[in-house]
Amino acid sequence: MRDGSIPPGWSYNPSRCSERLILVLLALAGFGIALYLSLYQLAVFSTVWEPFFGAGSQNVLHSQLMRALPIPDSALGALGYLIEAVLGWAGGNERWRVQPWLVIFYGLTVASLAFVSIVLVIFQSAFLNAWCTLCLASAAISINLVGPVMDEVLASLQHLKREFTRGDFLWRAFWGLKPNVAANH
Amino acid sequence: MLPRIINLILGLWLMAAPAVLGYGGAARGNDRIAGPLAVSCAIIAAWEITRALRILNAVVAIWLLIAPWLLAFSGIEILNSTLVGFLLLGCALVRGYVRHSFGGGWRSLWEPGLRGSSTNDQ
User: Is B100 in Cβ contact with A12 (below 8 Å)?
Assistant: First the structure.
């Protein structure tokens, strides 16, 4: 690994592709689960796989909150996972420095999906008194993604602060528009 | 890692406890909100970069210690909430081993001046 790919003061490169590949696969697994649940909510499938909690999945997936929006909540979840997979995949080994905007949008997506997941789990456990295995699995994936994604976000924010302190425009650094960064490649 | 695993199990236990021990009402609602929160914080704090979130579990734990008296729990509900509260608090206060360095961490973002050119900062 080239020295420039590791952020100053770090012991590893948070944007390294080996770590990101696992996160992309996790996001794709979440996408698969959410897609399956949304097809059930759209009545494409008449039953839903539920090994542990009996009618729990049906109660959760047909509850009012889950159907409050014009499209099923799991369809939004599927879209979120797909965006996560794309944003996790895009860019190279040094994207924490070259494409801070990409990393920061990625972090915001992951954080908001995890937040919504926690709210939905609390909703089903405390207010519906029902459990849905696949919903819990999907929530576990989105909560699990937060930790491994935030290191890249911190590296990008530190990079922006360094560029800003050196007198660069924050806006240009955010979009990776610094000419000498491109020249270093 | 062990404190986070214990807190994860404690959170899962809170979610299951109303059914296992057979209680309802305010205690059930309370534990089924605190449980998912404890699990989520434990998972996120398992990662070194977001270890600071363990403090949120200390907040959840303190709530579990005072909730029985505010929400009028009885018998086994008080015992369970207090016991889980103490264990959760104890584990949340353990920072644990941090192997990597992160160029000064999140703190570096609001500390004045340039940082990160040296490699010996935590």
Answer: yes
CB contact under 8 A, B103 and A10: yes
pTM for the model: 0.88
CATH at A82: 1.20.1440.130
Give SS3 for B105.
coil
A-B Cβ pairs (cutoff 8 Å, strict): 92
Cα radius of gyration rounded to whole Å, chain A: 20
User: Does residue A93 sit within a domain?
Assistant: yes
CA distance A14 to B116: 15
Q: Which of residues 75-104 of B touch A (CB under 8 A)?
A: 99-104
Q: Which of the given ranges, A1-5, A14-18, A142-146, has the highest pLDDT on average?
A: A142-146
Domain range holding A70? Answer: 15-183
How is residue B34 written in tokens? 């605190």
Instruction: Confirm whether A2 is domain-assigned.
Output: no
pLDDT, tens digit, for every residue of B2-26?
999 999 999 999 999 999 999 999 9
Q: What is the pLDDT of residues B82-94, one digit of tens each?
A: 999 999 999 999 9
